[in-house]
Amino acid sequence: MLILSIDTSTTVCSTALHQNGTLLGCYELFTERTSASMLTTLINNVVEHTGHELNQLDAVAVAKGPGSYTGLRIGVSTAKGLCYALDKPLLAINTLAAMTEQLRAYYPDTHILCPMIDARRMEVYCALYKTDGKEVFSTSAKIIDENSFDEWLVQNPLVFFGDGAKKCQAILGAHSNAVFPDVVVSPSARTVGKLATAAFANGQFEDVATFEPFYLKDFMTTQPRKAVR
User: For the segment 187-200, what is each residue's pLDDT rounded down to a tens digit?
Assistant: First the structure.
């Protein structure tokens, strides 16, 4: 089982190759914005440098979101293009679930994990997971204030991480059950591929023709200002 994974949910553009769940290689590029040319280069690198060819793939996996509108479109479009060209199945993994995989092993089962991706102003994309990976609060766009996560914080320690956790720490950092690891956790194809291995085994394939990214909310644009005469 050879799976190519792609994550372009945020400013981190990454690709990984897993064989039977074992990571063979991973390329990550930290930039201000992701481009299709960058992603194509990383895909070619991770496949070639691990001694494989694209036609040997059994599936292509992509982080479906939430995250950057433009980034998700690039990642999903590229993944679908590969699936069409190679006649391979598509696997789609929740970006927040894949982020959680990076920390699950480091906390006891009394803790709840809260991956966060920065949205606009005081808003984040987030979800809550147990340390066994089970989702206990579904992915949502949440505005952070002093009452955020009250019902959870009174019951369990909550571990906030990801680039959206910074704005949360300024408001909830004093709470005794709020935990903010001193480590940067960014979305990565490494853990997308890990979850994709299980999805492949369970036959959780997407319809390549109709699949769309999980944007969570509509794309917002800034209206151009009228010229001052």
Answer: 999 999 999 999 99
For residues 126 and 143, is the Cβ–Cβ distance under 8 A? no
With beta carbons less than 8 A apart as the criterion, state whether 185 and 103 touch. yes
- State how beta strands 22-30 and 12-19 pair: antiparallel
pTM of the model: 0.92
Q: Which of 19-33, 99-113, 135-149, 206-220 is the least confident region?
A: 206-220
Rg (CA), the chain: 18
Mean of the pLDDT values across residues 215-222?
Answer: 60
What is the side-by-side order of every strand in the sheet holding 2-7? 22-30, 12-19, 2-7, 59-65, 90-94
Those residues whose C-beta lies under 8 Å from the C-beta of residue 188, and which sit 6 or more positions away, are 7, 12, 14, 16, 26, 28, 98, 99, 102
Instruction: Go through the domains of the chain in sequence order and give each one's CATH number.
Output: 2-94+187-201 (3.30.420.40), 103-179 (3.30.420)
Buried b / exposed e across 167-182, counting CB within 10 Å, b at 16+?
A: bbeeebeeeebbbeee
CA dist., res. 72 & res. 66, Å (int):
8
**The pair of three-digit structure tokens given for residue 215, joined into one six-digit string:** 């944007």
